[in-house]
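From the pipeline queue, job 12 of 40. The input is one protein chain; the requested action is below.

Action: predict structure.
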Amino acid sequence: MKLSDVHSVYMLGIGGIGMSAIARYFHRQGIRVSGYDKTPSPLTRYLEAEGIPVYFEEDPERADLSADLLVYTPAIPQNHKEFLKAKADHKTWYKRAEVLKSVTDQHSTLAVAGTHGKTTTTAILSHLLYHSGVKMAGFVGGVLSNYDSNLVCSSEVDYVVAEADEFDRSFHSLFPRVAAITSLDPDHLDIYGSHDTMKADFQQFADQVTDLLIVHESIADQIDHSNKRTYGIGEGCDYRLSEMKVENGLFKFSVHTQTTSQGHTERSRSETDSGTLNIQTTVPGKHNAENATAAIAIALELGLSNQQVESAMASFKGVKRRFEHVVRTEDTVFIDDYAHHPKEIDAAIEATRTLYPTKKLTVLFQPHLFTRTRDFEDEFAHSLSKADELLLLDIYPAREEPIPGVSSANLLNKVTLKTKELVSKAQVVNAVLSLTPESVLLLGAGDIDRLVQPIATALKSAHHVE
């Protein structure tokens, strides 16, 4: 696939978070882009507003199947009419990961991998570089509040920042110059079969990093690389964060640099830079401070100055559905978060407790995938029991069929809270209001995000907030 020969692109599943970023990138390059998605969504509406046609009916006659490049997401069923028509006409469909590889092959690539933390880390790194004037394109698995987009892109591109997604081993298509690995907690065991197999695939990704690998201290002994740096809170970390605190609504911490070999590019850091950066951000939580430290480490290695990093971090507004404040009044706080793994739930609850230690915490959670619920049922129950109250939705199946004996009802039975209830989507708003909530944390990666606005509207009405 030669991108220089591409003048038109048609995409199946164009409304997906990864697909839509690629659609935006091609559109920014002056390439004609159109595509299909199953249902309208905020992302498809954004694409249409930017001049990218999106269709919601399978129609091989209408679809631009003669485009130079045909892209699909594996979430598209193999019996999709447009997919089959192009196949019958001997057209080649390319996976999103293959297309992203073609884009990254043209530039120096900076990648972020990990079973959680990669979207926030990628978003922060993209913002650090763009805010500091680096020529770059960032493909992010979430919508950055600063840009209202999942693509951060300057008019010219020297660096590509990309999430290295482990879900279908698509990160094996990337050969980044610099990369970070944030975590290796077991996940996607339906794909990998075992945690050991998953870690071996992460090691393969690490082997493909050409210049520098930055890893969280907790996994430093599990991943090998000839040029490896660590970050975290430990004294021996090359990039160490400390002094985390909440002050006047801001989350503040320091990052201390132990390494002296920064500056792997033509960009050189100021000789006046000290070994300590003082960071303040509106994005709270120890886990996000660690994500930021990974991004900061890469930015410093590329030659950004302390001042550039501190300024960019102060202006970073976060990622939608990553601990996003939807309602914030004196009486009630409503936070929306993508957390769908026990470790992520722990982090979201901890961040909420840190910011609002005196408020009763109500969690609304939608489990994502039958296999994940089965594999981590005890861990989910333990994490959810850290709330004060729990409202639990049925499992969002995504690509899966039900598994006998795996259900939200079984999960709820293992939660140790006194106030807990299994609710339907139609019952959610009334169920939330009936608990007279003080802080509400909505968690999940399925379609639970469609409940955000109804709940927000009801909470504002109950408290007479405009």
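Job complete. The first strand starts at residue 8 and ends at 12.
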